[in-house]
Every structure is written in structure tokens, then in C-alpha cells.
């Protein structure tokens, strides 16, 4: 299904789902008729820069933008196609936006993320009214005493925290046969492109919400593929930062050597903006000391239109066989990269891995029609 057509058709028939946690003040319950649409703001594919321009001109405010995203969440996450990507909404989101609008009126703009709504994965501590559960019923009632270090950095940058996204429970570290995007607390998250398929995990909620334009930007976490896989499946830009570039303090852990949070956005520029905002040395996470002198607060300076020129890009050979439509799309993308100056190299990675005796990777595809 064409992404833009799907997003425009957010009124597909579905059964209403009550949000977990409190709905932000001034809003009726999901599915109710008590709230009129607050703005005609078109959120489809909108970027951080475009939102900032609207706030700077006075055409929009952080409050109006936040309300527009909340309306969209009501329409297609909690009703309509019911993506079920958001496990909990932040009841303080509008008041946070109000405070940031006041700062702007008083001449203070913290940076490119000032007043920008964000969703973060439910294994990242937020020291507020929301829970941090990794999607598990075992942790229902758990409220963190303070923000995770990276969440503090993002708040300092001026984001409006809309809520938490669903995930594969315990970030998929619970079973060798678990289904991506399912948690006992949040249920099953759907792919916004194919509603009877999961959006890949474990940052499934951030992937689905980002693709459906339910927030300007999202944060996921990765041990092994949990940012880049849902980003790839949902046509997003996902970055797994070098471990230590973003602090891991306050994030429910799996691996001391592989874990990190990372950006999930719809454009490379937005990913670069979010990446810089999350960096910082954290005395509680010694590995962040390795980023001293190597990190920056602005990665957008490295974005170049001719950035692919002279680069060699490997393409796994097995992806060039099978479904003809997918192969056609991949080859078209390869052609675009070649016209931008890249050299495409077909490589065989999977065969040597099989020879090493790696276990078969199992993919769980949810089929809502058959249960």
C-alpha cells in the first residue's frame, strides 16, 4: 500500500482501544466525539526544520503541533486501523509545550528541537507520571525516580515528550521464538504499511509510530538490530550510535557491550539533529568517556549532497532473488545510489554465516485475520 494513501485514509474501520495511562488534559478519551480537530496542520512527512519554521513565523506553536499529533494518535493509533504503537501517553505533554512556547515568546530558543514532539521506547526511564516497563506486566506500576541520562539531554534540548512506544517485551530478550512488536502490557503493534504484519522489533512501536507520522521524531534502543531493522522495514532512518556516544544510564539493559538508544526519524537530517542532542558524557556510564573529543552536538554539518560519491556499498546477494516486486524496488534503489556516485558490490554474507553454524533466524508474522 502506498504510504501517503494509507496515512490519508486514517479513518479505516476498527474497534476503539482505550489508551494505557492518562490522556493529556483537554482531550476526550480515544474514540470519543468530545474533541474537535484543533488544527489543519498537515503532519505527513513534516520535518523538524519545517516545524521550526512554522513556530518561528507564528503560524503554529508547540501546543498546536502537540495537539495535532495527539489528534492523529487518536485517529489511527487508538482507532481506525489501530496501529497500537504507543503504549502510554504523557498527560503532561501539553503543559510542557506551553512552557516551551512561553520561553520562545520571551526570546529563548534552546535549539532545533525546541518545542518538537518526540516518542521514546518504553524501556527508557522517564521521571514523570508515565511508567517504564519494557512492555512487561511484571513492571506495571514502576515509575522511575528520574529521567534516563539521554532523556535528560533531550529535555534540555527542548523536546515535548508525547509518550512511550510499545516494543517487543523486554526488548525481545525473553524467548528464541518471540514475536516482534508484541508485549504483555501493550499487545501487538502493527506495521502501518501492511496491517496484518508486525513492524519488526524490538523498537517496533517507534518504527510504526515514526512511519505513520504520530510524532516528529522517535527514539528506539538496540542490542542487535532493534533500531535498524524496524527502521528499514518501516522506511525510516535509524541510527545505532557507537556504544558510549549516548549514555545507557536509565535504560533497561541486556548487554553491557552492545546496548544503546538511537534516533528513528523520517529524514537523514532529522536523525542527525536528534543524534547530536542525545550525546554527552555521563559519569554514571564510564563508556561515555570514550566519546570525549569525538562527539559533537551538530552532526548536520557532515551531511553532504554528494556524500555517496566514491563510496562502496555492499548488497547481500540473496536479497536480489525472490519476490520480484521487492527485487525491483531494491534494484531501483541501487541504481539511484550508483547515479549518486556509489559503487555497488554484491556480497554473500549469509552463506558463510550458515557454515559457521549460526541458528536459523525465525520471523514471526502476525496474521490478524486468522488470529
Largest sheet: 6 strands, mixed
Number of strands: 10
Q: Between the first and last Cα atoms, what is the distance in angstroms?
A: 22 Å
Low-confidence stretches: 1-23, 25-39, 360-371
Radius of gyration: 20 Å
Order of helices and strands: HHHEHEHEEEHEHEEHEHEH
CATH-assigned homologous superfamily of the largest domain: Amidase signature (AS) domain
Overall SS class: alpha/beta
Shape estimate: globular
What does the model show?
There is one protein chain. The protein is α/β, with parallel strands linked by helices. It folds into 2 domains: 3-303, Amidase signature (AS) domain (Amidase signature (AS) enzymes, Alpha-Beta Complex), CATH 3.90.1300; 309-349. 27% of the residues lie in helices and 12% in strands. It has helices spanning 3-8, 48-57, 62-76, 93-105, 149-156, 204-211, 228-233, 268-278, 324-339, 350-355, and strands spanning 86-89, 117-121, 160-165, 182-183, 187-188, 217-222, 237-238, 260-265, 312-316, 343-347. Helix 9 (324-339) links the parallel strand 9 and strand 10 (343-347). Helix 3 (62-76) runs antiparallel to helix 4 (93-105). The longest helix is centred in the C-terminal third of the chain and has 16 residues, at 324-339. The two termini are 22 Å apart.
Topology, pairings included?
Layout: H1 3-8, H2 48-57, H3 62-76, E1 86-89, H4 93-105, E2 117-121, H5 149-156, E3 160-165, E4 182-183, E5 187-188, H6 204-211, E6 217-222, H7 228-233, E7 237-238, E8 260-265, H8 268-278, E9 312-316, H9 324-339, E10 343-347, H10 350-355
Parallel strand pairs: 2-3, 2-6, 9-10
Antiparallel strand pairs: 1-3, 4-5, 6-8, 7-8
Helix pairs in contact: 3-4
